[in-house]
Sequence to fold (204 residues):
Amino acid sequence: MRILLIEKDSKGAAEIKKGLEDMNFEVDIASENDKIFSAALDSSFDLILISSMVPAHGEVELFQALLQKDIHTPVLCFTETSPEAIFDLIGKFKTAFTSGESNRGAKIQFGPLVLDPVSHKVWRNQKEINLTPKEYTLLEYFIRHPNQILTRTMIANHVWNQNFDFFTNVIDVYINYLRRKLDQGYKTKLIHTVRGKGYILKEV
Fold:
């Protein structure tokens, strides 16, 4: 899950970011006025967290911009940035998010793959596959967009963060990790390279 944190206090932002990343969330920070809107209008975020340090009129303008662009990313506003309040917020957010996932029907299936967004477990042909948090996040992105070409930019924006170095081969490395864990021992392969475009999850 990818989160945009809008927080003008750098220390508070760093503490919240660390707490969320410890819970396996991907977190980007926007603190400068000229970057807040462009970041928030990136539809690849799953949640936007807004600090009270952002002026109220700024929140209204942001909500209007999201509506105009037909972006329905959930927005959560918070008022305190003390360590205690931060971790209380994170705990409440995790509970709410988990509950929301449960209410949405839990498991997602694509062919022989089954993914549980609540427990973060994955199975192929009823055999559980052990994935790292990053591998799970990558697979969840694929399984929510089956039979669709995902470019390296799309993958980087959703699974990594704004500081991703596009000159590295990290994406290719993690794709290979997933392929070994998902496809090894099976005739039907699931993750395929689309030359010059990206990757796709499909049964072939």
Notes: The CA atoms of residues 156 and 168 lie 11 Å apart. Residues 83-103 form the longest helix (21 residues). The chain has two domains: 2-103, 108-201. Strands lie at 2-6, 26-30, 47-51, 75-78, 108-110, 113-116, 121-124, 127-129, 191-194, 198-201.
